[in-house]
Amino acid sequence: xxxxxxxxxxxxxxxxxxxxxxxxxxxxxxxxxxxxxxxxxxxxxxxxxxxxxxxxxxxxxxxxxxxxxxxxxxxxxxxxxxxxxxxxxxxxxxxxxxxxxxxxxxxxxxxxxxxxxxxxxxxxxxxxxxxxxxxxxxxxxxxxxxxxxxxxxxxxxxxxxxxxxxxxxxxxxxxxxxxxxxxxxxxxxxxxxxxxxxxxxxxxxxxxxxxx
Length: 212
Hints:
Elements: H1 10-16, E1 20-25, E2 37-43, H2 49-56, E3 75-79, E4 85-89, H3 100-116, E5 120-128, H4 135-147, E6 151-156, H5 163-177, E7 188-189, H6 198-211
Parallel strand pairs: 2-4, 2-5, 5-6, 6-7
Antiparallel strand pairs: 1-3, 3-4
Helix pairs in contact: 1-6
């Protein structure tokens, strides 16, 4: 039999990729060409999207993390050095103190992007494990179901919970997603602080890349 070299784990390739910021988009007319797979991240303001993206890509400051809710006000696109994937950091929702006109603008941008972006293969919806699914999350899940955009829930900040507490939140979240038509059945539990769940998240993205 011919000798074959072992192939590297796609998730490990994803971790080692040379990630770079491409652009911030405030309107659909500024979207990059739809020439590669897109994976987006959504979640309430301060849910830890930027921190998770930095942990996922093994970069300390690829996405700008902030303690100030509402910092991400546009669709931020990141790509790998070989240009085969976009990661999209979406504006956080549920930030009540932002000006109403600005919130409406963000909301419309998100709606338009979700409804019409052909390369978008999955949205990872981040849910703070300390709070579980809240009303603002339900609004986003309803929108994703309405737009028929596949999504997968990701619990964040699990290092802040005791094991028994996490089990309860995990079970309640999984139950809340079980009857949603566009929801992926596998719930992920992560911590950007400790790295918990990052390999599983990379594996999920690598599988989407493999399937194209």
